[in-house]
Structures are given as structure tokens and as C-alpha cells.
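does this look right to u?? magnesium ion version
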Amino acid sequence: MAERLSAVKGMNDLLPPDSSRWEWVEATVRSLMQRYGYQSVRTPIVEPTALFVRGLGEVTDIVEKEMYSFEDRLNGDQLTLRPEGTAGVVRAMVEHSFLREGGRRLFYVGPMFRHERPQKGRYRQFHQVGVEVLGFPGPDVDAEIILLTRSLWRELGLVEGRDITLEINSLGQPDERRAHREALIRHLEAHADLLDDDARRRLHSNPLRVLDTKNPAMQAMVDAAPRLIDFLGPESMAHFDGVRRVLDAVGLAYRINPRLVRGMDYYNLTVFEWTTDKLGSQATVCGGGRYDGLIEQLGGKPSPGVGWGLGLERLLLLLETVGIEAPSAAPGAYAIVPSEVALPAVVPVLEALRAAGVAVVMHPGGAEGRGSMKSQFKKADASGARFALIFGDEELARGEVAVKPLRDAQATQALRPLADVGAWAHELRNA
Ligand code: ATP
Ligand code: MG
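got this back:
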């Protein structure tokens, strides 16, 4: 036998039954997006490396050490497997001049790639749902994209406050960040002995990111650092208050976390994260914020933007941890076919049922025949189907099929006419 090959480390196969749980979540996402008026986009998985270097900033975890970058062997182009979705969506909007006629509400679902140490909730290929709302400057859309996430938690059965909680902050505008940055650098320099290597490197290039440290030895020093929120002017505060007013009006509870800075350089004003205490250190399920400078930075006409990214693996782990299961994906019916001879009569009936919206699985034949009735019933049971359709010789001779309930001990078997599937198909349809 040939040697077996395995998947790349940190990249997972998604197989049944997990795949149907994923599809349930994705279908819920798509249905919600439609209700909020968000349109889907699909951009390439491979982009020019420069897009992420320019879009995310050079001194970020992603650009410094997490990107899968390579040279195209045929033409020498520098390419990268996308580590996140925002830069690609903004590139596409600019490239196709999509913002000329006003703003856009967009969403995407797809794989992202980061070279990280694989662990529970952290993989090298993972999947994100993301929204990007481009062209609208007001705090109302910041609040809207947060409300969209709350609706998603609710539709999936998660409880805010218990399973998942919201933190928000404002990063202000570049000039406010500059004033804060100077004060912050002074504070960090005064505690230079406490800084680790990462922090020392970022002290001057990106001191805000030092606040994002996970190093316990630096926590107290970082807690005492000057807070950006104290440097915000009246306009930034008004924007922040605008977001809060909408969240308050709909009763969405949140915590203001002045330390919340997010990983990418492009954020300004509103930033937020939904975190959970149920997934260990992979606590952030969804994070996002405003990025009013990004479109211009990527060559577009200056235009505001706001968005979030949500890790599907973490969301699914959370659902599993709190015991939320997807609605059953079992078929409505399982067709038991005692002999091959019956097939020409059976298959048209199954096709008519499927056309009428019934999920029906046929017991398969083969060189060894179809197996005993007993083994066919076993398969019917294992399929989770609510009914077995028994196409026995006697029933077929009378132009009928026996419909046997498999899950309801009280219900009795009934005969149904083959010629008029439309009259009884509804009995088999899943609710
Ligand atoms: P973390 O601090 O956990 O590394 P991040 O700030 O790098 O997260 P973002 O870039 O904001 O994450 O991505 C948005 C979401 O995508 C995260 O909140 C998380 O749910 C998910 N995510 C990010 N990286 C991974 C990964 N390597 N594996 C699985 N999910 C991920
Ligand atoms: Mg990360």
C-alpha cells in the first residue's frame, strides 16, 4: 500500500456530522444578513502581499509573523494567502469603483490563513464571517453591525451576558492618538525595566499595541498607563456616545474597556469585541471596529468604513460547549426496496417526493443485492429518518407503498398511492 498523506498541520477537514452544524450556522448568518440588507462578496483567497502589508500595518502580529507568503514560481509575484477579509474587500471595492454611487453594506464567509501555533480555537486555516460597511460615517452603522451580531447569537440560542459579552472602546482620531501616544511612550520609557522584547520593539513603532500584551509580568504597568479615552476630543466622544445611545435604546449590555485596542493598525473611533469565558485563552469570538483611513490608504477616495470579523471555529466550539445543537439534518424518509426488480417502480416515486420537498434516502443495491429486510430497517433507523417507505411486492402490485413511522410508537403504518404522491408528500416533510 502507498504511504498515507495527512492534512497540513493546523488545517482541518470538515466532515459529517460537523459539516451540517456548520451549514446551519452559515445558513443562519446568510438569512440574517439578508434581513439587515447586507450583500455578499467573494474575493480571492490569494492576494498581493503588499495589500496586507499596507492594509494591516507592518508592526502587527499578522504581518510580522503569521502570513503565508510565497513567490509565484512562474512570474516572481509576491503573494499571500489572505489572513483576514477586510483588506481584500476594500481592494475590490476600490478596484471596481463600487463606492461611487454611495455606501455599501457587505458580508463574506470563507477561509483565512495564519501561521500560528495550533490549539483549541486557534488554527492555521480557519473560517471567518465578516461584515464591511463602507461609505457611512455615522455611529448608527457602528451600532447596527453590533446589533447584527447580537441577533446572530440569539438566533443560534446563545445568551448574552452568560455565554458571550460585549466590550467596546473608542480609539479616537489620529491626532488624539498621537497625543496619547506621546504620553504612553513616556510612561513605558519610565518603566523600561519591565518591558519584554516584543514591547521594547514596539515601544516607538506601535506603543498602543504594547497595551495588548498577554505577558502577566507587564499587566500592572500596563493598567497604570495613560488611557486613550482620556485624550478624546468632543467629536470623538460624541461619536462614541452615539453608538452607546443606540445600544442602550435596544437594551444591549456592554462593558467599556479602555484597554481594548484590537490587532490591526487601521482602526479608529469605535472598536469592540465579543468574548466568552468558555474557550480558555481563545476568548474572542468576534471583533471589529471603524477604519475610516483604510480605503484611502489602499488607493481609494477617502471614505469611512466599519466592520467585524467572527471566527466560525470558535463560534461552533462555543455552541458545543454550552450544549446547543443544530436542528436535525436527518431525512424525512428512508426507502426500503426488497428487490432490484422493484426499482423502475420505486425511483419515479422517490423523484416525485424529492420534487415535492421531501428529503428521502434510498437503500442502495449492488453486486451482493440489497440485504435482508432486517438490515434495511436497521439502516433506516440509523439514518434518523422519521418514516420508512416499504416498497414490498404486494404493495407495489396494488399500486401502493407502506409508510411506517420510525420515531413515534403511537403512530401506525399506512398505505399510500404511488400514482398520487402530491396528496401525501406533506406527511413526510420535515417541519
Ligand atoms: P486573537 O487575539 O485570538 O489572536 P485576533 O485579534 O488575531 O484574535 P482577528 O484578527 O480580530 O483576531 O480575527 C477575528 C476573529 O477571527 C477572532 O476574534 C477569532 O474568533 C477568529 N480568529 C483569529 N485568528 C484565528 C485562528 N488562528 N484560528 C481560529 N480563529 C481565529
Ligand atoms: Mg491573532
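Residues 292 and 304 are 4 Å apart (CA to CA). idk if thats expected tbh
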